[in-house]
Specification:
Elements lengths: L1 H17 L1 H10 L9 H4 L5 H11 L3 E8 L2 E7 L6 E6 L5 E7 L8 H5 L4 H11 L2 E9 L6 E8 L3 E7 L6 E9 L9
Antiparallel strand pairs: 1-2, 1-5, 2-3, 3-4, 5-6, 6-7, 7-8
Length: 189
């Protein structure tokens, strides 16, 4: 009886602190105790929109890139002054882990991104309006001297759509099907 009370109290503390992941841990710690949690509750697929919001809450600034790799989102954020940069990972449950942070960057290199009228989040919305589905990648692209947002969407038809979004107007300026979905995260363009 005492053991059950201690295990129950410990389980309650773990659940309050750890959420759905703790449910599985608590069940493994006491096999005699049955914890009912649907497998779906253990893994929540975070959308690109949710991943960007979680990343910006952790490190305020401007999204430079966001890329889904399996169930993890890799997010690069530039600080609002253009000098800082954080590499973050957002898990399937929405928790954010900081991989790297720099504070001595060159603000001039990030000026176009920081001052763009259209954010990564707005570029995602524009691309999704043109091609419904799920965003898998958003990247700021200014390599050729013309800035744009590159947005990849996994369409409901299973194809990957590539869209270029104008950072001044939000207009989808180019969009094409990249073919079948490529789940390994590689960019074949």
């Amino acid at each position: 009886m005492k053991r059950t009370r201690y295990v129950s109290a410990a389980t309650a503390v773990v659940l309050m602190a750890g959420g759905p992941v703790a449910v599985a841990t608590a069940a493994a710690a006491d096999p005699a105790r049955t914890v009912t949690a649907a497998p779906a509750a253990l893994r929540v697929d975070v959308t690109a929109e949710s991943a960007s919001a979680a990343a910006l809450k952790h490190y305020p600034g401007v999204i430079e890139s966001l890329d889904k790799d399996g169930t993890v989102w890799h997010v690069d954020v530039i600080s609002k002054d253009g000098k800082g940069h954080a590499e973050l990972q957002v898990s399937a449950s929405g928790s954010v882990t900081e991989q790297n942070r720099d504070t001595d960057g060159n603000a001039a290199e990030n000026k176009a991104l920081v001052s763009a009228k259209v954010t990564a989040q707005q570029a995602m919305k524009a691309a999704l309006a043109a091609h419904p589905g799920q965003v898998t990648t958003v990247e700021w692209d200014d390599d050729d001297g013309t800035a744009s947002w590159h947005v990849e969407i996994k369409g409901k038809d299973g194809k990957t759509w590539d869209a270029q979004v104008n950072p001044a107007t939000g207009k989808v300026t180019q969009s094409d099907s990249g073919g079948d979905s490529d789940d390994d995260g590689d960019d074949n363009n």
